[in-house]
Structure formats: C-alpha cells, structure tokens
Amino acid sequence: MSYILGRIGQAVIVLAIAFTAAFVLLQALPGDALLIKFESPESGLSPDQIALLRDSLGANIPIWQQFFDTLGGFLVGDFGYSVQSGTPVSVIIASALPNTLVLATSAFVVAIVLAVALAVLAQLSWLPWLRTMLRSLPSLFISVPVFWLGIVLIQVFSFRLGWLPVINPGPIEGLIMPVAALALPIAAPMAQVLIRSIDDVLTQPFIAVVRSKGASEWWILSRNVARNAVLPALTIAGLLLGELISGAVITETVFGRAGIGRATEQAVTNQDAPVLQAIVVISAAIFVLVNLLVDLLYPLLDPRLKTIATVNA
Amino acid sequence: MSISDSVTGRPGRTLVIAASLAAVLVLTACSSGGQSAATGSGERTDGGTLVYLEPDAFTSLYPPAAGFYPNGGVVNNITDRLVYQDTETLEFEPWIATDWVVNDDATQFTFNLRGDVTFSDGSALNASVVAANFDLFGQGDPDRSLAISEAVNNYDHSEVVDDDTVIFHFSASSPGFLQATSTITSGLISADTLTKDLDGFGAGSATEIIGSGPFVVTDEQLGAQLTITARDDYDWAPASFAHQGRPSIDAVQFIVTPENSVRVGSLISGQGDVARKVEAQDEAQVTGAGYTLAAAQTNGVNNSLNLRFREPALQDIRVRQAIIAAVDRNTIVQALFSDNYPVATSILSQSALGYVDTTEYFEYDPEKAAALLDDAGFAEGTDGIRSKDGLRLSITASEAGPQPRSFDVLTLVAQQLAEVGIELKILRADAGNFAAAVLDGSQVQVFQSMVGRADFDVIKSQFFSTNRNVTLNLNKTDASIGDQKLDEILQAVASEPNAEARIINTQAAQIYLAQQAYVVPLFEEPQVYGIAPYVHDLSYEAVARPGFSQVWLDK
Fold it and tell me: For a Cys-Cys bond, which of A14, A40, A294, B318 suits B376, CB 3.0-4.6 Å?
C-alpha cells in the first residue's frame, strides 16, 4: 500500500515540475501571444491601443504573481483563456480531449494487436524467407513518418479508390485511416522488442525442457514464452505514449480532425501560453498515469517483482 | 459579381473544356438505364448544402477581427453592412442604409436606415443598435479586450436622431468612413451580441453571435467545422444582387482542412464543393480535373518587400535603388506562380482606388544596380559581398508565413541580389520569434507583406508611422520619425474629403514610395478558390472573402 502511495507522491512531484518547467519555458520564449496577435504590423493597431490591450489582458502583472494565479487556477480546474481566440481553455480541452483519447486508444490497441500478431507469425512461419520478411517489417515501419503515411493512405484509399471519405466521414469511417497512420509506426518498435524478447526466452534452458517433453511450438509460445516475453514490451508500450501524443499532432492535422494534437499545433503557432500550459500538464498527467499503471502491472505479471516491491516497501 | 467574371487560369481553359466534355461523355455512357445524367439544367435550383474547405480554423467572430480570412468568411455571410461596395466598380450602393449624407469636411456622416430589418434573434436593426455597433468598432473596449477597428479612424461619437436615422461624428476629417461601413470589419451585430467580451466572440461560442445576414451559425465543432444555415425571412440584400430573398442553398459547412494536398485532393475527388487557398503549384491539378479556379483580387497593397530605410545598410537611396534594379520580378512570378498572380506595377494593385502605374521605377537592370552600388562606394570583398567602411551589404528578410511561397520568393530574391554583391539572409522563425524580429529593424531590414482592402486609406494603413509602420519609419524605442514627409503624404490621403483630391494624393503617395525606393512591389496577390463545376454564383466581397447568398448548386 505504501508503495502505491509513494508512487502517487512521485507522480504529483513530476506534475509540479512539469507545470513549473512549462511555465518558465513559455515565459522565456521570445515574444508572446499578445505580441503575435496585436503588435504584428498586420493588426494595424497604434502603439497606444496596443498598450491598453496588453494592460487589460494582464500582460503587465509581475511574472511571479502570474505564476501563482495560473497555479491556483489549475488547482481548481480553471485553465484561463486562449489568447488567440478568447475561448476558455477548459472548453478547448473538453472538446478536443475525447476525440484524441478515442484516436489514441484505438491506435494503441491496434498497435498491440499488430505487434503481437507479427511477433507470433515471425516465430511460427516455417518458410525462412517469410520469417526474414516479417522480421524486417518493423524496421521498415519505424522509419516511416506518420505524416507521409497519412498522406499516402488518403491519396490511395480516399482520393483514388474512394473507399473512405476524409470530409464528413462517419464516426467509425473517420477513424480507420487516422488509426492506421498512427498505429503502424507505434506497432513497429513494439513488435521489434517483442520478437527480440521472444527470441531471448526461447534460448532459455527451461524451453528446451518443455520442448523435449514433446510440447508443440504453439504450446511453448502461448504457455511458456508469452508471459516471460511480455515484460519488455510492456515497458516500451508505456514509453511509446509520448510517440502517440506527438503522432496525434500530425495525424490530426493531416486528417483535419479536431483534437488535442490540432489544438497543440495551433497553440504552438500562436504561442498561446494558457493553452500550451494546460496541454503540457494534461499530457504529463496521462504519461505519469500510464507509466504508473505499467509499474503496477509488473508484479501481477511477474511474481519475482512482487517480492522486490514488498522488500523495498 | 458572378464568378465567371473573375475566372482566370487561362492555360487550363482548354483542359477544363476537354475534361468537362470527357466527364459528360462518361456520365452519358453511365446513364444507359434510361435516366438522363444530372449534368445540370442551367436554371437556378433551391436546396443543398455546400461543403467549403478552409485551411484554418476561425478564431473570433468579433467583426473588427474579420480581416483574418477564416473569420471573415463567416462574418461576411452572417452580417449585413450599412452600405455595399461593388467589387468591380468599387462604387457604393444602399444596403441597410437607404441613403447617406456626408458633410463637406467629412466629419459628420448621416445614414437613413431601412425600417424592416431584423436580426436573427428577432430584435430590430434600428438606429440605436447601429450607433452601438460603431461606438464599439470606432473606440474598442480595452476593458473587454476588444480592439478598435482598423478601418474606422478619428471616431468621436454617435447620435441617434430617430428610429431610422443615425449620425456619426468624427474628431477630424475621415473620408474613409463610408467605405469602412461596407467592410466585413463593420458587420452589424445585435445589441445582445455587442455586450460580449473577447471570450464571448471567440471560437466555441459561434452560435451565439447574432447578425442580420442571409445565414445564421447553427452548429460549431470547435476547431473542426462550422455550419451556417440560410435564414428563411432574409429579404434585404443589396438591390444589385441578382438573387433576392432567402439564399438558394440551405446551408454551408465550413470544414477545416489544414493540409494543402488533402484540401485540393478532397475537392477534386468530389468530397468538397469549394476550397479556399489553392496554391499556385496545385492549380493545374484543379483545372485538370474539370474544376474552376477563381482568383479573387484583394484590391489593396500588393505583395511587396518593404525596405527599412533607416537601417544603416539601407540608408543610401542608391543601395535601395540597386536592390530594386537587381530583383527580376518577372522571373520570380514565372518560376513560382501562375497567371493569377500578375507582376505588380505599383505598390497598389491595379484594381485599387487611385492606382497609378509606376513600373518605370521598378525595371530590372542588374548593370544599373552594380553601377549604383559602385557609385555609392560599395566595393566587392573577397566573399563577393560589397562593403564600404566596414559596412557590409548583408541584410535580412523575414519569411512571411501567411504569404504564398514566401520562402521560395525570398530565396530567388537572395540569388538575384547575390549577383550584384548584396547578401540577403532569410529569417525563418516560429511565431513568437517572428513577431519580435519584424518589429526590430536591426534584425529584419526587409519585410514582406501585403494588405487587402478596397479603400484609399489602405496605403496609409500600411506605411503610416502609428499604423502598420512596415518600413519602421517610426522608431518605437525613441519615438523618432525618419521621413516626416512620408507621413505627411500618407496623412493627406486619409484626411482629404474630396474624392478627386484623394485620387491625386494616393497617386502622389505611390510615386513617392517608388521614387524614394522604399518598396519592391512583387505581385498582385489574389485569393485563389477551387470550385466544383456545379457550383454557381459564388461571390466575393471587395477583399475576396466568399459570399454564399447568391450560390446555387446544379447537381
């Protein structure tokens, strides 16, 4: 129990650091959203008018006070307003987050299925050339940029074949291509790690014992290897979350889907600090949460880790 | 008003015809079942939803912020204006105002209003709400973070005479105000809407923005799409509009499609009906598929390089003249753009009010450029870059993100300038760095920009010290002005009440900018739309924002 409490404490510290770092970095950047919005020659405002607007938007409040105002707001769920559009950040996040969660979760599930299927097929294939081909697929897909993959999928399946619309797709239709574009590059490193760790486990002496008792390859894979090989894959799955978030930025832009990725892209373009601050903290929270879950899953999968955890606690 | 007037894209025309013929043949062949192919009757039909593909999400529906195209595309269709400016002749016609009187020194504007106009929430559009609109647009409200409208200058106060008469008073002569009442930045909104603050106008609350226009915002998916629906009781379009009353189409769906290739591909694969911002390099793909291109002119300041003449490297007029002579504008336009982007002949567009041809100042002549630099005492160093007393002719231009192919343009300019011994560096930066750098003459000496606006005031807006100040004539740190005469000439454009005299003053300003070699006008920047063949009568306001009140679909 105290192990879990300790981990939660760590998570809170990580979040506090993420919040502060994001705040400091956004302040340290040259220029700010108000400069971009009002002071560019495009706005056509006179220096006096700009000064009035800066003042009314709180740009002249001391930084330390802005920090505590923002922090206080975050603690009670008030993220402030987008400087670019004036929209409350909570509204932006609330409308974007569900879309991205659906996209990212689906992509993640598809990626796991693909990775497992590939790893298993790579072991069970009796044809040597097929094994080699399957084993080289992950390295190919690791190097495929999400952006390019998205465009190619759209060109082929939407524009040439007309199977899937990009404009006004149905809820499921609209997910197929973005999920594919996002899942493939994530499935690849997972499959790579999985294939590698299956190979490692297969060389263990106990496998030779099982095999000598007459177990089939499938029996060995599903009963003996799977549980041992899944740990490294689980670790990398937790880390790939970052990949998933950055992939969503590109996927959502290419497919024109509303979501956190699109919101991030627009906020970065306009240096919209309140929006970026909220996105950084929320992403950090999700990252921390997922990695916490992964850590808590370890002992369930591997009893040896349970002892270590208990001993440490 | 109709799109056919402004359709260009000449090289593609034969292709278009060929492709449409092919399409007809294919359709006829497919319709062997007896039913004739729906290639259109050519007569106006009602109904249908138009899918409009837009590169950027709108940010705010506060009318003075409607200069940003994604905002303007919406505001133009949900609001009416006091007067209508014909996009071809740039003349004014009655709209919500039936007639108007301007006093001799243009400090007082009296408008008589139609009495039968209502906002979409049912409230009346009367003199007091019109007065309240301009009180906000003319003065802004810093407490609500609402900026003043760039188009309204010297606003003092309004006076409601009776229900359908309103007078606007100005502290100084403001002849540009009549035009200002016709622009989308002066879209009339309801009394309730006027009480909103910046958040209230922002993305996410579009359905609460109430205008009196032919369409009403009915649905918004933040950052992704927006739907405007025809208003059944709309009946006050400007008299010159061919189609009166309720719009023919039922709705327009604005769909944000940021990626260029996806936007153009979606259009020509039949998933959208109109796409804004078809890049020059994609034009052939659109016309090749049998779609129409419309290059709507923006009628203002051309896409130009503004030379910051107070910076050490550019203080000598001979250096600036040499830069102009060294830039081969024809080659740039031919290499990077299409016929929809005519080479500029003045700082103002040919269709702008008060335009005068100043091509003679902008001739390409690299030998003259070299001679001017020799004359100015700049000699070539070992690296091929000229310098004089330790001052190297190395200048920096900022890549202008919103302008088409800005980086490619600047790259070609840099190559051409290198030929005569001038180094041009190109600053590529994120928005924050960019915004800070372009305000700083020591970082950016060449600033690329344009302004779309169909009024005499546009030239003043661009160059005046306390407006856009693109040449940094005003140094904001010490509040000094480099060229007082430039400011005086520009002020004369904006404050002259007599229309004839305004033309003369505008011409004088163009000639002065050319003579002083403050600008290198590059090309006339249009808004290029890709349009499906069955979409008819898409219109554009004076600065090329789309209007859907006349549109009908023939499919």
Answer: B318
